[in-house]
Amino acid sequence: MKQFxxxxxxxLCWVVLLATRVAGDELEGAxxxxxxxxxxxxxxxxxxxxxxxxxxxxxxxxxxxxALMLVIVxxxxxxxxxxxxxNAELANIWExxxxxVLQANFSAVGDGRQVLERDSAADLLFYASGRRHCKxxxxxxxxxxxxxxxxxxxxxxxxNHEKLEVEVTLNDxxxxxxxxxxxxxxxxxxxxxxxxxxxxxxxATHDNVPAGIVLFSESADITSQLLDSGLDKMLAxxxxxxxxxxxxxxxxxxxEKHDFKREKRLLxxxxxxxxTTAGIQSFREALEFVFYMVDYIAEGINLRxxxxxxxxxxxxxxxxxxxxxAEQEKQEALAKILADKRRAELDEVDKMSPExxxxxxxxxxxxxxxxxQGKRTRRVK
Length: 381
Ligand SMILES: *[C@@H]1O[C@H](CO)[C@@H](O)[C@H](O)[C@H]1NC(C)=O
Ligand SMILES: *[C@@H]1O[C@H](CO)[C@@H](O)[C@H](O)[C@H]1NC(C)=O
What we know:
It is a single chain. The chain has 381 residues and is α+β, with helices and mostly antiparallel strands. It contains eleven helices and ten strands. Strands 1, 2, 3, 4, 5, 6, 7, 8, 9 and 10 form a ten-stranded antiparallel β-sheet that branches. It is extended.
């Protein structure tokens, strides 16, 4: 059923696309026909013959249009089935190494039966939990949209390629910092778009950084310790499949509220190689390495005290405005409680007899006076 809906959507898209194209052409034709042209044509041919010829031409072109559309829709349907089947075959191939690594590392993988869950013909997801040093891991296998010509065109023009994105949510007890290794051509966009990278990290240099990779780090201490894990050799550019990796303790987008989630995460993008035995083997090693990194961050990294201090200070500074927002919110909540209380009190007073009310007003006046005095003395101190 879902497939049918998708096909219909696609076909509809194309029909609309074609219709606008045809309408555009006709409009252009109408504009292109200058009065002089029309007059010349009218003079050349007797009117009745001309109308008949135009009508025939119109009919013919209508028929051609319809035939063309039919062919296109049939082509789309065939392509959808062919593309979907091809992707399902590929998903089966890549599911094996993914399942092997996940099952060796996590106690709960997928729903217990299936590792990759199909989100679309080109997108497959996984979820795993139950591993030391992390809360859970999520993955997104992104295949080429072979089933969808429009998305395929987009993939081709954007130079997208097939990849696996992995996001591991780390245990809170792990050290928190921001580090990123990204392809040079993406580095500007990353530094512009990612709040965590642009706020905390700077471009870092290291002897072992492969050409074509840009590092962002908060301190040289972190950079060298992370690269010592063997990360330098796994990064793309050195023949590795790891395209991008982020270790972060802050959100990728600037939070709008002060009570944002502060989770530590490891994100990695692994390029899919050709599905040969050797390709699958290096893909598996890259995925294994991602989970090895989790252990490495938890157990292999020993930040110097001054690094830890620097990290803390940078966060205090960056989150100052959020701390202010939190304080303001607290004050507002308090003020609201007091105002509500006062309103309830006044409601009670409204129900009193004149005598009672007079007494209450007298008492209230004294209370307010005392409060004012209290404030003044506090201010004097
Ligand atoms: C993760 O999986 C690999 C095999 O794919 C295994 O060698 C490694 O020990 C596993 N790690 C953990 C923590 O289970
Ligand atoms: C995970 O973090 C909690 C504290 O947030 C800690 O008590 C627990 O020992 C950690 N578990 C592992 C496996 O690191």
